[in-house]
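---------- Forwarded message ----------

FYI, see the Acyl-CoA dehydrogenase-like record below. Original note from H. follows.
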Amino acid sequence: MFRERLDEAGLLRICWPESLGGQAKSPIFEYIMRQELQEVGLEPRVGVTIMSAVIDKFGTPEQKDEFLQGLLSREIRTCAGYSEPRGGSDLAALETRAVRDGEDWVINGQKIYTTGAERADFMWCLARTDPDAPKHQGISIFMVDMKSPGVTVRPLYTMGSYLTAEVFLDDVRVPHRRLIGEENRGWYLNTLALDFERINMGSYGAYKRYLDAMIAFARETELFGKPLAQDPAVRLRLAELIVDLETLRHLSNKCAWLVSEDQNSTMIASMAKVWSTEFYYRMTNFATQMMGPFGQLQKGSKWAMLDGEAELGYRNTPPPRFGGGGSEIQRDIIATRGLGLPRSR
């Protein structure tokens, strides 16, 4: 119903291709809409996805007919088969293999931290198709039907509310028509996909809503007959957090602008990723401290403050810090690709 109302208001398809009834506007419009939705607690995952962007630009006419409408409307649910147990954040080190067999490809390997795999219809799967090529080459992208024989999904439970999964691919046959783009060019196509992911780097709207609730709590809650907001230590920490939040907004806005202008956003995106995830940790950590023992109570508890959001938010902070490339990886990208510093030997 929510998506239908967005569509009626002319917002859902604002950045969709004109061939699918969209307005084909700059990605910056979608970025602004997502920020506004986040700030009022609504679902921000609307519009163009990293997968639909690549298929629209590099897919065959048959692939566009099969996937685009469903991906943009979210009728087709997907997961991203990126990380692997031995590769970690080094995506180019993937070992999942795809071998051509007539009109099919046979895929063998394992993916890990594949969020949404348990409910996905297809996996956007990166696999090595030329083992003799340099590691950034010889990689291809496949749309793998998650109902195919040989696909096994096993849930991985985190300490927070995140549910992710590992996926085993044992002699999974994928039709050649579901090879996305050119064979062995998957790394370069996926870079475009990541540009669309970067445009929404940093959940400024959601974090602002959370911090606003913390500030309201400090104003309304008394300790020893005085509002918490009168405590110098509380005021100092809240002031630091609002500065951090506005820094995140600047990084996110600049990243979105660079992507919309087809400029290199790699360094700013990595900066936004580090700042966003580590700010989330600092904010939720202070929320639990400010509320004392009550900040450790879970949602549903009679005495939980802010309905347990402090405790839940704090437990949810680890996965974002390593998902999509850990903070150490991001800092290395900033140093090497952004500042041009030499790699360590």
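H. also flagged this: The chain has a mean pLDDT of 88.
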